[in-house]
Design brief:
This protein is of the alpha/beta class. 30% of the residues lie in helices and 25% in strands. The strands form three sheets. It has a five-stranded parallel sheet, with helices on both faces. Strands 7-8-11-9-10 form a five-stranded mixed sheet, sandwiched between helices. It has a three-stranded mixed sheet with strand order 6-13-12. A hairpin with a 7-residue loop joins strand 9 and strand 10. Helix 6 packs parallel to helix 7. The chain starts with a strand and ends in an 8-residue tail after the last strand. Bound molecules: S-adenosyl-L-homocysteine. The site of S-adenosyl-L-homocysteine has 23 residues, from strand 11. S-adenosyl-L-homocysteine binds next to strand 11.
């Protein structure tokens, strides 16, 4: 039997792949965090829905595995791409001993691509994606990754840039990157991508440092070549094409 882990994209169903849509439509049971279930509510009116709050990820995966073992057609949904800070890895780990279950991961548009599209074209060259959440990763490791990515001149995409408890993490990240990049480095952020209340801003590293963002925001910090072209953030592909 198959257990699907499906990335539903950033929000609007226009940004969901036809494959994800088809698999959700064919399912009996949909498992996911309440907010993501709300986003796809119109697609799953006749399904059995199993939701839980954000931190019960393990419980959600276990429910999905149990239902799949009972022979139900189960889909676990994650926002963006299920394999990028999503549920795919945990499902593989928890189903390790269940030979009957074949895990199928269905990709989706991750926040880095959807944010980049809103901001312009900042990810045209090498970039690093770093989550500022220290729930599952020590802050010392996050700090090291920020420092080395900054030193290596990667464009940096930040996921989980802030939360109520971690209100100053974006500021701390900007300070670390700021040791390697000038204050006027072009940056940007997008809140609620493809959802109600989408907002975006192109700014500088110095102003980003003083910006309060919430956890539904994706941040892009440009590198030494990133420029602002007609109010959009653009990193040239390479010198060869200039
Ligand atoms: N699996 C998701 C990422 C989950 S981690 C993906 O591939 O996109 C959660 C973080 O992703 C958020 O804190 C935010 O930084 C980013 N994110 C996800 N969806 C977003 C959206 N619609 N708008 C802005 N940021 C989003």
């Amino acid at each position: 039997m198959k257990l699907y882990v499906v990335g539903i994209g950033p929000g609007d169903s226009a940004q969901m792949t036809p494959q994800a849509l088809q698999i959700i439509r064919q399912s009996d049971v949909v498992v996911g965090y309440t907010k993501y279930i709300e986003i796809i509510a119109h697609l799953i009116e006749e399904k059995t829905i199993r939701t839980s709050e954000m931190k019960n990820e393990k419980e959600r995966c276990q429910i999905a595995i149990m239902d799949a073992l009972k022979g139900k057609n189960v889909v676990v949904v994650s926002s963006g791409d299920a394999g990028i800070y999503g549920m795919a890895g945990l499902i593989y780990e928890l189903a390790e001993e269940c030979d009957e279950i074949e895990v199928c991961v269905v990709p989706g548009i991750t926040a880095a691509s959807s944010a980049a599209a809103v901001l312009g074209a900042p990810l045209m060259n090498d970039f690093a994606v770093i989550s500022l959440s220290d729930l599952l990763t020590d802050w010392s490791v996050i700090e090291k990754r920020l420092r080395l990515a900054a030193e290596a001149d990667f464009v940096i995409v930040l996921y989980n840039p802030s939360s109520i408890k971690r209100f100053d993490y974006l500021q701390k990240a900007c300070d670390i990157v700021g040791a390697y990049r000038p204050d006027e480095t072009p940056c940007g952020y997008v809140k609620n991508i493809a959802r109600e209340g989408q907002e975006s801003c192109v700014c500088t590293l110095a102003s980003l440092r003083n910006t309060k963002v919430n956890m539904f925001t994706t941040v892009v910090i440009g590198n030494s070549t990133t420029r602002v072209i007609r109010d959009k953030l653009v990193t040239p592909r390479g010198y060869r094409y200039v």
